[in-house]
Amino acid sequence: MSIFYPIQLFADWLTYSVFSLKPNTLLAGAINFFVFDTIKIFILLAVIIFAVSIIRSYLPPEKIRKILSGKKKFTGNLIAAALGIFTPFCSCSAIPLFLGFVQAGVPLGTTFSFLVASPMINEVALILLLGLFGWKIALIYIFSGLLIAILSGIVIGKLKPESLVEPFVFKNTINVNIALLQMSRRERLTYAKDYTVDILKKVWPYILIGIGVGAFIHGYVPADFLAKYAGRDKWYAVPLAVLIGIPLYSNAAGVIPLVSALTEKGVSMGTTLAFMMSVTALSLPEFMILKKVMKLKLILIFAGIVAIGIILTGLLFNLIL
Description:
0% strand
């Protein structure tokens, strides 16, 4: 049984009993999705931000900076992307980790490698892909995601985008981290609680807007739409799949059943992989939250580079598979 099963029961009760909506209708599906994902995301965010705050208080920032910046060229991007694979968080919950890396002095290019890899690649999706499509597709998924994350971070790092990040992200970085290392256990818990509340206060409107848009599309855009307009014979299939996937907020494990259904309806594997990657790595709620920590220009650069990488990957795999 899923750990989120009680939340699903509550969403079902609210949708069908309190709101008296008929099951299997578009409106009911959208409302149910919105209620379930809103509660789930806020719980995940609170737990993850709190845990990351505790861990961050014990880790010397200089050590983190050395590990992720790397002595050799591009080593930091590789390590950060690999670290993202083993942190199976959704794109929204990766933001606190992104903030922590920046405040620890990790280069922005390296942090973006992590930001791309964390939601795009995770072991749950890998296992599901292995079971549904075999080891070849599973390896392509993990290799392509890793490559996109590394190259995206390298390109963004070369653009030197520090001026496009909001000043508060860098504010009092060194002094805050030194103080954290001297805290008692009780002080660390208090710090983590206050930090969690502060972050949630800043991002909650953006989360609700993003999930609301995703819920509308989830309820009113059927899977047949993508299958119809993204068939094997359509040259624009991959770019279209990426554009459609952006507002469809989900994690990789959640979108894989839809990927399986699309492939059965004739959508090519490269197109479905591109769709899955865009859903997980280019989610609308993530952009809403990122707007609090960076300027729109950097968000567009980040989204554009990742989108181009996903499109090229999808086109390549459509040719070889």
